[in-house]
Each structure stands twice: as structure tokens, then as C-alpha cells.
Amino acid sequence: MATAVLPSFPAQQIAASSFALGLIEGLSDELASYFKLIGGWWTDRAGKRNPVAVIGYTLTASATSSLAFEAVG
């Protein structure tokens, strides 16, 4: 749910246009795809997928949960 309400922040707090919201979403999708590509290449080369997957999911969970602290503070 945290990531679903993220576009409302720039729209309401800094009065971002729909073009700016689209640009932000497009860049975030692009970066996510890029890191998936690099991560897949890296794990294929190293032959160890499990540690990379655990690190990735841990970073995602901690970053998403940190949004709760940002909203409170």
C-alpha cells in the first residue's frame, strides 16, 4: 500500500504536474528494469542467486518500511 500512495505526495505537496508524475514513474520503472538486468547478469556470472535475491528483497522491504518513519516524522 505504501508504494500505491507515493504519487499523491508530489501531486499534493509540491504541486507536480501529471507530466512530472509520469516522468518520475517512467524513470523509476527504467531504473528497476536496469537493476534487474544487471542483477541477472551478475548472478549468472557468479553462480550464486540466493544471496543476491535475499539482499534485494531485504533492501526493498527496508526501504518500503522506512516510508512509515518518514510519514510520522
Structural class: mainly alpha
Radius of gyration: 16 Å
H and E order: HHH
Say how many strands there are: 0
| Percentage of residues in helical conformation | over 70%
Total number of distinct structural domains: 1
Strand content: under 5%
The coarse silhouette is: flat
Extract low-pLDDT stretches.
none
Q: Characterize the largest beta sheet: strand count, sense, and whether it forms a barrel.
A: none
Compute the separation of the termini in Å. Answer: 19 Å
**What is the average of the pLDDT values?**
78
Count of runs of 4 or more consecutive helical residues: 3
Can you describe this structure in just a few lines?
The chain has 73 residues and is mainly α. Helices cover 81% and strands 0% of the residues. The model has no long low-confidence stretch (mean pLDDT 78).
List the helices and strands and how they pair.
Layout: H1 8-13, H2 18-46, H3 49-72
